[in-house]
Amino acid sequence: MELYNGRPTDLTGREDREIRVYDLLDSLGIEYQRTDHGHADTMEACNEIDAVLDVLICKNLFLCNRQKTDFYLLMMPGDKPFKTKELSKQIGSARLSFASPDFMLEFLDIKPGAVSVMGLMNDKDNRVRLLVDEDVLKGEYVGCHPCVNTSSLKIKTADVFGKYLDAVHHTATTVKLVGEE
Questions:
Q1: Where is the secretion signal located (predicted)?
Q2: SS3 call for 88
């Protein structure tokens, strides 16, 4: 795997959803590095990518309440265990579960395995609330997929939680997850 600065020069074979991410980042003047790779839809697969990008790829979970009326995108360190009860208490939403791939596609234009903060650019009606573990905000950079799981990006944390979220009209709610019941 190689590390590149910015978008691919040849967009042949790239999905529209990926190209739209590069278009938006470029229009906002956000610098990023990129690596291309085989399908990386598990945290284990992301560990090798972490080494190339020299950044921790976030675990991104797409969640909903029992009634399927509230939807959440949770960004957390990949090595931290996720405990539903711990998060539920902090956001005041009981019975969180994983949202269906249909909702993921409808709101974020993302398929399972490629969930990323970049998908919020497709959430025009602000149906998805972004939750971020405080440890993600401590790093200088964040790693994420550009709405596909065959490329990964390294972007300054300040740019993601500043310029990018401002442009896509979302805010982040910081949570503290320790992985305990």
A1: none
A2: helix
In a domain, 55, yes or no: yes
Helices (H) and strands (E) in the chain, counts: 7, 9
First to last CA, the chain: 38
Confidence grade of residue 181 (pLDDT, cut at 50, 70, 90) = low
H-state helical runs in 28-144:
43-53, 84-91, 101-108, 134-138
* Residue 180 domain flag: no
Q: Is residue 181 part of a domain?
A: no
Give whole-number Cα distances, 109 to 8, 27, 68, 113, 151, in Å: 21, 20, 18, 12, 16
Domain enclosing residue 70, as ranges: 15-175
Longest Cα–Cα distance in the chain: 47
> What is this structure's pTM?
0.93
The neighbour count for residue 69, using CB atoms within 10 Å, is 9
CATH of the domain at 126: 3.90.960.10
Task: Give the residue carrying structure tokens 């980042």.
Answer: 25
What residues does 76 pair with on adjacent strands?
Answer: 59
Residue-wise pLDDT tens digits, 129-145: 999 999 999 999 999 99
How many structural domains is the chain composed of? 1
Nearest CA among 152, 118, 153 for reference residue 45:
152
